[in-house]
Amino acid sequence: MNTYRLQFLKIVLISFFTVSFFSCKTQQTYTSYLFSYFTGNSGNEEAIRYALSSDGYNYYALNGNQPVIDSKDISSTGGVRDPHILRGADGKTFYMVVTDMVSAKGWSSNRAMVLMKSSDLINWTSTVVNIPQSYPEEFGDVVRVWAPQTIYDDKTNQYMIYWSMLGEKGPDIIYYAYANKDFTGLATTPKQLFYSPTNSACIDGDIIYKDGKYNLFFKNESHGGGIRKAVSDKLTEGYVQQDGFYDQTDAAVEGSGIFKLIDSDEYILMYDMYTSGTYQFTKSSDLEHFTVVDDNISMNFHPRHGTVIRITDHEKEVLLNQWGTLDKSAFVSFNGEGIRQNNVDINDADGTIYIPVFLGTDISNLDLKIETIPWVKVLTTGPQDFSSGAVHYTIETAGKQKTYKVSVHEDNNPVLNGFYADPEIIYSEKTKKYYIYPTSDGFNGWSGTYFKTFSSPDLVNWTDEGVILDLKKDVSWADRHAWAPCAIEKKVNGEYKYFYYFTAAQKIGVAVSDNPEGPFVDSGQPIIGEKPEGINRGQEIDPDIFTDPVSGKSYLYWGNGYMGVVELNDDMVSVKPNSFKRLNPGGTFREGTEVFYRNGTYYFLWSEDDTRSPNYRVRYATADSPLGPLNIPDNNLILEKRPEKGIYGTGHNSVIQTPETDIWHIVYHRFNRPKGITMGDAAGFNREVCIDKLEFNEDGSIKPVEPTISGITSMD
């Protein structure tokens, strides 16, 4: 009996220590978050990238936001999208699945996904799974295989992969199959996991288990699109679609991903607002009610459709040793007084940092207040004297150091702090100040909806006067695409009035104010609301207002793809009937007409090429009348890029004369310097306003303008 009891106790103790041992091996202490994502639709943007966060809200790219895996090595198309990363049930193996796709070949061009496996988050094995080739009888007509994800099924001890597919005749449906033991292929034939006939399509599924229920978040393509949810108590069947939408925006969304915060009962539901160029984060404790937490979110990159997992300190250190690079991506901001944040130029090739500051900044005692990504430390701190030249700054991470030569410069281009474009400038006799009326820029796809103005006594120092017209509040006939305004000061019955012409929803409106800084009151309808007779191309945008000093008549010019003009009535808010005329500036005209008068000559300036192009530039013609005909000089290019200065996309200008002088300046926009040239099409809506001198030859021809970084420091 004693022998039996001793043997029993031995078995219990062995079992206890065995269970405890394996529990300790698989139990992890998570301290950080790993975000796997891709960034866009071209080149190496369709590749897997990593970012780290210590709190689940603020993310910083690893490897300088460059791919951590070469898409050509793992895919059949040369590109991958929608990475989903999962920690395995053993706690130490990682699984990733991605869409095998290059979007340039079309949205119904891919047939495969890639299955990947790793033990260290760095080295991955991979296999391409082509659905029509693998299952020609069941799925031979499949034209796209999108956004695969993986979840562990603890009832079958298998990894279940689920994704959306589109056949030739049906909508996108979410299917599933189990992976084989090695995670190199599918062990079962795909079956339908979820589809609701109330949705035109179901894509981008993401499953999370909570309180005995599997919650399947997905994007539906009907009723305007959005994130919906279906719930089941079984992983592979029985999903019931819930009422309503779970995204908290009216913008288009896709690629939802949900993860649990460390040491918290709260979850983050995030999704890709792909037409807005951003991500939205929402928080919930019950997976039913979500609140937006965007104010707490920051990223030093622009992700597309990705997923987040929790990682340990050791795993973070492994990633940092591999991809914690010391380069420009290590710097988050330079917060010292007077620094032009948007224009700091970090050159890794020659190890320099160019810091532009506003005029008047004390550079002899300047603290740059450098903020870096969390794992990088700045060893040079406190105020420094930059008045005698550059100062060396050293940064450090993971035992590695790098030193930069940092110089500070008082620059005055751009003249407006922030992203603005299409600048119109006037001089007000009433206030004896200059005013710039720009497009409010920095919005994805030129989606701004309000206008501001800026004032200056001297063309050098500018004050933000705030919003003067908000389409959503002040305009009844349009609420989108607030672009390219112009303005003019007129005396009406002895009182100064200000007439403001603006683009909204590709139409031109007019608003009126008693003051140049507004507020402006819209007339209630567009002044140019449709294409003129005989015009069948282009857009009704980019107004320019000009009063002829000879005749006293006022003319409104506009056009994209054609240059049109009408005479205005004396009220300045209506068009003189039958006065439309199409002018001929030649084949280089794109948009952005600007008209001014000097010494008996009418000058017509316009922009050539697309505002998203580095080659956007300004040409001109002359005339003897505000209605033409236009005389186009052989060498009429007056403003263009300067690659050696990092200046690109110079265009859409206005011109101002200093009163009682023959001193002239040109006001124009350019790509943000220095980042714009690296931003692709997004450079065309991240622009900034500059001023440089405009000079004339003795014969009245315009000298080519030298765009500068330093800008002007006086009106001379």
List the main descriptive attributes of the protein structure presented here:
Tachylectin-2, Chain A; xylan degradation; 716 residues; mainly beta; Glycosyl_Hydrlase_43_Enz; 6 helices; hydrolase activity, hydrolyzing O-glycosyl compounds; carbohydrate metabolism; Immunoglobulin-like
Describe the structure.
The protein is mostly beta strands and 716 residues long. It has 3 domains: 29-323, 5 Propeller (Tachylectin-2, Chain A), CATH 2.115.10; 328-410, Sandwich (Immunoglobulin-like), CATH 2.60.40; 420-694, 5 Propeller (Tachylectin-2, Chain A). 7% of the residues lie in helices and 42% in strands. The chain is built from 6 helices and 47 strands. The strands form 12 sheets. The chain has a 5-stranded mixed beta sheet. Strands 23-24-28-27-26 form a 5-stranded mixed beta sheet, with no helix packed on it. The chain has a 4-stranded antiparallel beta sheet with strand order 4-5-6-7. The longest helix is centred in the N-terminal third of the chain and has 25 residues, at 2-26. The N and C termini lie far apart (110 Å). The relative contact order is 0.07. Mean pLDDT is 94; it is low at 1-25.
